[in-house]
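Q: What would this complex look like in 3D?
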Amino acid sequence: MGHAAIPGMIREERLRRWIDAYSDDILRTCFLYLADRAQAEDALQETWIKAWRSMEDYERRRVQNDKAWLMRIAINTCKDFRRTAWFRHIDRRKALEELSPRLTQVPPEDKSLSYLVMELPARYRQVVLLYYFQGLTQRETAEALGLSPSAVIRRLRSAEKILKQALTGGETHDA
Amino acid sequence: MMHNDLREHIQQTLSTELAGLSTDAVRRERLYRCAAGSAALHRKPRLRPVCRVALLAALLLALTCAAGAAFYPRIISWFSREYGQAWAAWMETGSVALPASSVEVSGAVFTIDEVLVHDRGLYVLGSIRAEPGHMLVEQECSVHEPFGYNVHYGETAPEGTPTIAEKAAADGCAVHYVGCDLEGIGTDGGDILKPSCWGYAAKAQLDGSIVFSMEVEADAAVRPGKEYTLVLSALVYGTLDDGAIDHHALTKETWAVTVTPERLDQPARTDAVGTETGIADAAPSTASATDGDR
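A: Here is my prediction, written as structure tokens for the whole assembly.
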């Protein structure tokens, strides 16, 4: 009886550990993807529900990097949210202002980095969030997004160009 | 700025900017309970025989009522599928207009079929149909998804269903990514106000059309009134070589639809003015193209 309960207990402990360790990272990633706090909160909850239901899959695959595996679920959840409702037409600056009073003092023409990331096309935003923001490797980013490593590198280069250009006020030019 | 510097800069800056976005212990406990308890929530309930009989009777009654009903807006069916029957009951006390106003852009015909107004909420049901030789993909979807199915809504395509790309190649059609934006709402001829937040959902249909909905709730842009003008943008994007959406190849057409919604207990009438292309009356087949949408 006691032995039978062990796998479930391990899963529960694992879920608890993940929620403590990664909730903030996932919430911020979802916010940057969806540009809406309430949606990001919903996506966070959905991510944990999916993670819990995928525990068997997680164990079968012998996942090496928990964070990369969870980020894949989170990004896919955000994609689903974007495809359904209440996603695209939120005033992104307003979303940021509601998040932090400090950002309300930023002049509209002085875009914050969060705003720039939220403005990126989805294909670039995904790699920026996982590789630059969450610190995954290129290979982990590729696995999380279901892309080839070369596709990730191409997208990173393009995203890098856009961001550098924005951050340096247009010093960098596209080839 | 070097690659690693950029990475570090992005990590630090975003972490600082989003420092206010975090979860506390209480929230994390709730997340845990919700996730760990979710398996039980989704068990399919078993119906006892007496319940089955009652359900069958209710179904027959509903069918009888439906057969006798003269008109029931598809917009209510659409939203009740998402939000439930209580929502449908609420919408039934709103006002509806059937503008059937269309605009054609690059091989795609955008039509606003129904508009429902209730309190400070405004809801739109529309469709996008392809002209011969064209095939449409919703702008958030991919040509590699099965034709006519919405996998992100949990639909499963039967084995052998071609992808949109395969079907387009077989039929010799040009593929376009499409979407529709709500630019603003005017009430009783007043200023056009841009809603700060509005929802958009779209579903591919088996006939190749796309049905979409828009919803604006409790927004300052929706004021009490009799006549509403919707300013909409029809968006048609090109495709890249790999089939992905080409955001740089956008054709956009803005048009206005003015409606006077009427209470559902009064006969609804067709009334649309202000279509830029003047083809509002040229889309009588819209209803049949999207009847029974999912």
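A: To summarize the key features: Confidence is low (pLDDT under 50) at residues 1-5, 101-110, 171-175 of chain A. The radius of gyration of chain A is 18 Å.
Q: Very helpful, thank you.
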